[in-house]
């Protein structure tokens, strides 16, 4: 019998780690995670949030293994699933998601690292194929209801000290099931309330922790500092896959230019100031749609144009639209499968709640501007932040920073909706996308943007014992563009 060690964890208590898994933990790729903060610069708001990707990965391994044991599926290799839980984050850059800049893709670098690793009982090809799996194995690690999410919610709540994130992991695990016909992961009816509590916890963590204005400001500064040293050629994108937080901070402190200045400001907690907030509810669908379609490079151009116009440094913080992938989780009720959002009114309402907590903010350089001086500028943005909003959109349009031809004329979803007052069923879009050689990932991403912005509305239609989603274009004025 393979030897094992016990690692004491504040979340899951004793985590048993096998000797073959210890050999992975002891690699340079995995040890690097000890120095990568799980929640970026949240520690500037919640001082105890210094937990890292290292312990989160151990926790994900544990939860993934427990989920696989519960399924008791002969096609599942529990040992391999635990390894995938260990390795799922090894491609992260310093400070985790904060520095997924310049098209950095942590999943790509995770794959590249797995290719070069040695495993006691598996070929690297086997591990990589399982990591890429879209079936049951993949869903246990990065699906709608995965081990990654279940660990980080509890862990982030524990280390930040907030009163959210308390979910009944064991109840969820006892309720999971797999569906042979679709090779997917779902839950039994008895687990619906446990999944709902997970979703509530994540929603509460979203504005309180993950979107906290101060941590967002700090992360925006760190991101721009890193973009500066990337632009100067001090580091390359791929270097982020081998650096940890310590490497990055050292590099920024020793660099010349604006990146070093931003790092010094972070060191002394001299942060940019939030001078304008544009809540979701006060933005028009087209305004939201344009903002979330700004590329990273065009956002940088917009910020430079704002600097020229306003006379001081500004950063725009445009969060990615929140994803609620759990709404797709299949629920087994009386022998029939339903989506979670079809049987849970709470899940439907959470979609609306997430939108209301989504804000676009504008940050100004503290050393160059004060609240009083904002008023004395050419543009009175302190008393009327929407004057600044008008300036932003005028610049986007004047310099064509968002390609409206691609947004509207070449958008196949909008074209279909322009020809049909109501599109009945997601399968209509799927068939068109397939005919055009477009992947479901592209379809899903674009449809989510349109739905989130409010450009397109979705309605659930019950047809006997099944459900269908109908789609309608809200702003029909864009058809005449």
TrEMBL record:
Residues 53-153 form the HD domain. It holds the Pfam family HD_assoc_2. It comes from the Archaea. InterPro entries: dGTPase-like, HD/PDEase_dom, HD_assoc_2, HD_domain. This is HD superfamily phosphohydrolase. It comes from Methanococcus voltae PS.
